[in-house]
Amino acid sequence: MSALTVLAADEFKAPGLELFDFPTLWAGAPFWLTKPVLLAILSSLVVVGFCWSAFGNPKLVPRGVQNIGEYGYMFVRDQVARPFLGKDADRYMGLLLSLFFLVWIWNLMGVVPVLQFPVAAHIAFPAVLALVVYGMKIYLGMKHQGALGYFKNMMFPPGLPKPIYVLLAPIEFLSNMIVAPFTHAVRLFANMFAGHIILAFFSMVGFWFLFEKLTPLGAPVGVLGVVFTIAMTGFELFIQFLQAFLFALLAAMYIGGSLHAEH
Amino acid sequence: MKAAATLLAAEGNSPIMPHLYELVVGVFAFLFVLIFVGRILTPRIQKTLNERTEAIEGGIKKAEDAQAEAQRTLEQYRAQLAEARQEAARLREEAREQGAQIKAELREEAQEEARRLIQAAHAQIEADRQQAFAQLRGEIGRLSTDLAGRIVGESLEEEARQRRVVDRFLEELEGTSQAVR
Amino acid sequence: MLPVTMLMEQSDMTSRSSPAIVVPAMSEMERSPEQDGRDFANAAWSIPSYLISGMIIWGGSGWLLSRWTGVHAFIPIGILTGVVLAIYLVYVKYGR
Predict the structure, then answer these.
(1) Engineered SS bond to A155: which of A172, B55, B155, C41, CB 3.0-4.6 Å?
(2) Domain residues of chain A, as ranges?
(3) Closest Cβ opposite residue A56 in set B16, B18, B41
(4) Number of domains making up chain B
(5) What backbone phi and psi angles, to 5 degrees, belong to B70?
(6) Into which family does the record put it (chain A) (predicted)?
(7) ipTM of the complex
């Protein structure tokens, strides 16, 4: 930051956590009506709207939006559901498709001009989805393996001397019951959080050195900022997709693990 | 940075602490999507995809059937063609045989006819000769008698004797002509 | 949570509408290459989780022990034990 302060006459302030604090949409609006909330609602509408136009009245010979929607469906089915759920894949496609599309649109909100905030960068939203998957994981595990059998299969892999279980079982329990759902939510949140900061930083560098304080020395830095903003936007698009994919994939993995005991 | 920290402290929210109202909104946002996309729309597209698979498999089946049918028809046609060719060859052969037979029969008939004609001609000739011979014999007899009568100057009254004389004469004549021959 | 989970899982009626065509393709997936791929993915995603859990559990135990005895060495020993146990656990579950 000191290098930047040398270049600029006034102090350049890198964006920080204030990026993630939003006032209500207008003065006097209800306290909960903020930009992330609005974007979350908008995302749901976008997802449902898109899916409705794609799958609302599906044709045997697809055309237009249905083609795109089917690409999405096939991707989730072949890359997420079938590898982890096998013959149960079709049963859980509704959940996985909803998760994938919703998370992806949440993330995409980060690069849509004007909106420019990835909904998943507020941890409440990924947490809700992770909690839902967590609840399903435990419910299905107990349903398919029995309440006791589920925990027994999880914590006591067969064929080990008894004292070893004392050492390993706590790790299994913590990993499956707390760390896994936590990282499930936090991985998505952290990626979007960091991505948003990076994009904000580079675009602010470009804005500051090219518009706010245009100096001969600072101009190249500003240009660099703009170039990096564009490059990082492309990279973010990839990360946004990847994180949506991974979120759905982990959900499928957890559900698959609950349906069938490992080994 | 410091300002941000104080702001954070003032509002008492850290990025890792979820806002309660956002949790509530998140639940409803997700349920909204889940009900429409997960419960209503996904089964629809699944149904369509299954129907498409069936349709494609049905189409393949239909095409295979059509091809088999075409193959069958072709084989049938080929068999018919071969049969027709065989039949034609057989007919041609038969016709040739018949023709040859007819020719042979005709020739036989013609030869027979010729033979018959020749035989008839021979018989006619023989008969004519016999007749001529008999006539000649009578004529010669009369002439010779006449001649002899005239020469001898006497009429040979007695018929029998007259005939005997003529016959004897003729036999002699015949014997000489035979010897000459 | 219960009504929500009921929502997630499609009822038998809709899943039955995915008829025999899907099933043979699926039964092949139960075979080894797919199974191996699934195991590999499970292992790959489990390792960080196990490592963190191992460090928390046994590092935490070491920390308690160091608080109790005053010997600070228990903290790194506990963390290391946790890492080793986590790796062993991954080996036990997926490596054999």
Answers:
(1) A172
(2) 2-259
(3) B41
(4) 1
(5) -60, -40
(6) Belongs to the ATPase A chain family.
(7) 0.89
